[in-house]
Amino acid sequence: MGYPKLTALVAVLTLMLGSSQAQLNPFFYTFTCPQLPFVVLNVVSQALQTDDRAAAKLIRLHFHDCFVNGCDGSVLLEDVPGVIDSELNAPPNNGIQGLDIVDNIKAAVESACPGVVSCADILALSAQVSVVLSGGPAWVVPLGRKDSRRANRTAAANLPSPFETLDVLKAKFAALGLGSTDLVTLSGAHTFGRSRCLFFTGRFDNFNNTGLPDPTLDAAYREQLRQACTTPGTRVSFDPITPDTFDKNYYINLQNHKGLLQSDQELFSTPGADTTAIVNTFAASQLLFFIQFGNSMIKMGNLSPPPGIPSEVRLNCRKVNPPTVLHDVI
Ligand code: HEM
């Protein structure tokens, strides 16, 4: 590369580095923490060696972070009475796991580049690395988020529920600027990980007070699930065929009426819904699913906090920085 081109590249990178949360960019840590992607990759790979669900836990944390006041690491804040009303205490976060893995990533990142990388960015990068290590697509992760000094438990209580109708799910996504394609695509993350039985045993008998099982749940699969569900807290794979692989099987399962949650199956089985054709497209083409997954993850990852919330680069992902540590107020 000649000098003029190099100078132009450095100028562009410098401009990008100066950007705020509103303009995330993939080069945000190019000079301040060039080894960041490798550090995250290393710790997530290690976690996967002892925990098949590590990848699933991490991408779900990023989703629950971004849907509540934008991607600001607020989901990770623990309760401090009178100060932090933790989102972890909201019912939809009741079974959320993986904070220990985030602690390990943060410790490794802090040792490589102290005080530079936000927990919100660690979640965004971990989600991408998790998908790649599970056989799914890579995408370029825009970076430069800050960590909030506030949590919003009330908003967390409004995260999408597995018992909601497609109309309600669509409305919750639309409120954040995410359309039907994003809803179907991002739900494809249910290609790996587990759900506790309490979220779907209501489909087995007397579904919605009909006196009958959910007619959109395959009867033989229903009986297999009934056998598997020895307690409400038992965890069952979303995808019975390739439980820990990121692939398009989720959509094939929906076509076969083997969606685990009501909210999964509705994407395919709601009469007249625009989501059915999208499920069919992804069931037919893993390439199209993978390309769109990256696009929708970037869109979700761009959700930014409302203006005026004080933010910082947290040193411990579970706690706001002590007053002695400088933080931005935006
Ligand atoms: C469309 C609305 C959604 C609903 C109603 C929903 C609901 C759920 C429920 C009930 C569980 C099981 C939780 C438990 O047993 O504790 C779960 C797990 C999971 N969700 Fe979703 N989810 C939705 C969208 C998403 C999105 C957008 C993503 C990521 C992009 C995602 C990723 C996951 C993953 C990976 C797991 C497994 C976690 C594990 O094994 O620990 N979900 N989801």
UniProtKB/TrEMBL annotation:
What Gene3D superfamilies would the database entry show?
A: 1.10.520.10, Peroxidase, domain 2
Recorded catalytic reaction(s): these are: 2 a phenolic donor + H2O2 = 2 a phenolic radical donor + 2 H2O
* Transmembrane annotation, as ranges: none
Its annotated compartments are:
Secreted
Show which residues constitute the signal peptide: 1-22
What EC number(s) has UniProt assigned to this enzyme?
A: 1.11.1.7
Q: Which UniProt keywords apply?
A: Calcium, Disulfide bond, Heme, Hydrogen peroxide, Iron, Metal-binding, Oxidoreductase, Peroxidase, Secreted, Signal
What is written in the cofactor note of this entry?
Answer: Binds 1 heme b (iron(II)-protoporphyrin IX) group per subunit. Binds 2 calcium ions per subunit.
Q: What CDD domains does the record tag this protein with?
A: secretory_peroxidase
Q: Which parts of the sequence belong to the Plant heme peroxidase family profile domain?
A: 23-321
Cofactor(s) listed in the protein's UniProt record? heme b; Ca(2+)
The UniProt entry, under Pfam families, shows:
peroxidase (PF00141)
| Reported function | Removal of H(2)O(2), oxidation of toxic reductants, biosynthesis and degradation of lignin, suberization, auxin catabolism, response to environmental stresses such as wounding, pathogen attack and oxidative stress. These functions might be dependent on each isozyme/isoform in each plant tissue.
The similarity annotation says:
Belongs to the peroxidase family. Classical plant (class III) peroxidase subfamily.
- Name used for this protein in its record: Peroxidase
| Provenance organism | Citrullus colocynthis
